[in-house]
Amino acid sequence: MSFSRAARAARVGQHGLGGEPGRELRQELCPVLRRDLRRRFAAGAIILMIFVLASFSISCGTSSSKTVAANHIAYITLPDAGSVLMLQINGTTGSITAETQTPQVQGTSPTGLALLPSRKFLYAANSRANTISTYKVAADGTLTLAGSPIQGNQAEGPNVALIDPTGQYLAVSNNFSNNISVFQIDAGTGALTEVAGSPFPANANPTEMVFTPTGQFLYVTNPSIKTVTGFSFANGLLTQLTTSPVISGSGASDLVIDLSGRFLYVANVSATNPQPNQATVGNISAFTIDSGTGALTPITGSPFTSTDGVGPSALVIDPTGELLYAMTPGTSFSIWCFTINEENGQLAAVPDSPFSLTAGGLFALFDPSGNYLYIGSNSGINGYTYSQSSGDPASITGKAFATQVSPGKMVFSQ
Fold first, then answer.
1. This prediction's pTM
2. Please, what sign has the CA dihedral across residues 254, 90, 84, 360?
3. Most exposed: 49, 153, 382, 386, by fewest CB within 10 Å?
């Protein structure tokens, strides 16, 4: 990863890191600067780089060191309990403590979560009730239902909720009605108003969604037909790309875009692999994104897979933008880790991947400080530290944080 790309990624902030001013920049630059000092610069350039480091007041430490951070607040949906649980994340240890829980409403099954950038309102997609709940977020992080849940027009099975990069619109994939609802957000009250033309057809069973960093394009997986459908996005309106949908693989589930906005990766849960990877079930398709048209083009060597493991269904890119993790259920060969080639988007497994650690395929995300990786399983949340140089994860708690019922999605507030 080049110095310029790291700086660009820090400005874009696509990975959603928060915390004290400058922390993200230090985390993006430290591993890059160390590598560049070793392999690119002669003695004179090293002196210049030292001057730059002093100017930025960067303290890098070792490649696996972590920045000590304040505690964080997170939220997680509990579909079978009909509620949203507030969590406290210890910034020093990464441990999780349960805080308040919204009143349980049976028959709602909240799944998807989306938090406004202002952190004033949180939205939950209630997949069984076919509604969307709006919660007001207090200064201490507690949630209060803001009015009655609303129902989108011709929307059944709302699944994933996603706010566009401008913070003005909420998109919700409707798994049963095969469309995507889009709502305009009132920044003052949090109220949702469905835009004209919504819902927008999105092919069969649209599920996971992702915006490009610019917000110009949106992509959604269609697991039942092995595809990814792409849209242009402007003023709340979705227009399917003429080059869409594209074939990804069997059980196309989660998807993620790299920090530069140039590459799209899709986890194909049940795809079969030819020799020499027949022991592995599932792979990751990789595409380049045309910045002008949004068209997806398969990357040479795609799909990529592991030497062993079954069913990758959750993807996440680390804060440096150099590592892609794929999560599978279980404990055997359950965490895959790849380096991302910044020039062509190709994936290469790190030396110790796959890792036989307790994982899960429900979700994967890093905390706002970039120190810890959290993975959702049917029994709760598994937390790990990780090496920024090798990618190796290590358990931070020794056991999962139990949620009693299977969680849905998780978001961080601060």
1. 0.84
2. positive
3. 153
- List beta partners, residue 395: 384
Amino acid at 125: A
Residue 113 lies in a domain: yes
Q: What is the mean pLDDT of the chain?
A: 86
Please write down the long-range contacts of 331-336, taking CB distance under 8 Å and 24 or more positions apart: 331/356, 331/357, 331/358, 331/359, 332/308, 332/356, 333/306, 333/307, 333/308, 333/309, 334/309, 334/358, 334/359, 335/359, 335/375, 335/393, 336/306, 336/309, 336/312
Do 30 and 176 belong together in one domain?
no
Whether residues 42 and 88 share a domain: the answer is no
Q: Where are the beta strands (DSSP E) in 23-93?
A: 72-78, 83-89
- The CA distances from residue 390 to 109, 350, 398, in Å, are 39, 7, 21
Residue 228 amino acid letter? V
Position of tokens 């560049």? 36
Per the structure, how many domains does the chain have? Answer: 2
Q: Note whether residue 67 is domain-resident.
A: no
Tokens of 384: 């790990």
133 part of a folded domain: yes
| CA 37 to centroid of chain Cα atoms | 31
| 78 vs 73: CA distance, rounded Å | 16
pLDDT over 70 (residue 260): yes
pLDDT digits (tens, 9 = 90+) for 385-413: 999 889 999 998 667 799 989 999 999 98
Question: 133 by DSSP, 3-state: which?
Answer: strand
Give the span between the Cα atoms of 254 and 221, in whole angstroms: 7
- Decide if 351 is inside a domain: yes
Same domain membership, residue 313 and residue 213: yes
Angle at alpha carbon of residue 411, lines to 270 and 342, rounded to 5°: 60
Nearest C-alpha neighbor of 4 from the set 267, 343, 365 = 343
> For the chain, what percent of residues have pLDDT higher than 90?
76
Nearest one of 388, 412, 385, 380 to 396, comparing CA atoms: 385
Q: What is the pLDDT of residues 30-50, one digit of tens each?
A: 444 444 433 443 344 433 333
Q: Which of 369, 305, 367 is nearest to 337 (CA)?
A: 305
Q: Pairing state of beta strands 280-289 and 309-310?
A: parallel
